[in-house]
Amino acid sequence: MSDSSPDRPAAPVLEVWCELQCPDCRTALDDLRALRARYGDRMELRLRHFPLEKHKHAFAAAQAAEEALEQGQGWPYVEAVLGRVEELDREGEAFLVEVARELGLDAEEFDTALIDGRHILIVDADQAEGKAIGVTGTPTYVIDGERLDGGKSQEGLRERVEEIADRLLAQRNA
Question: Per-residue pLDDT averaged across 106-135, rounded?
Answer without folding.
Answer: 96
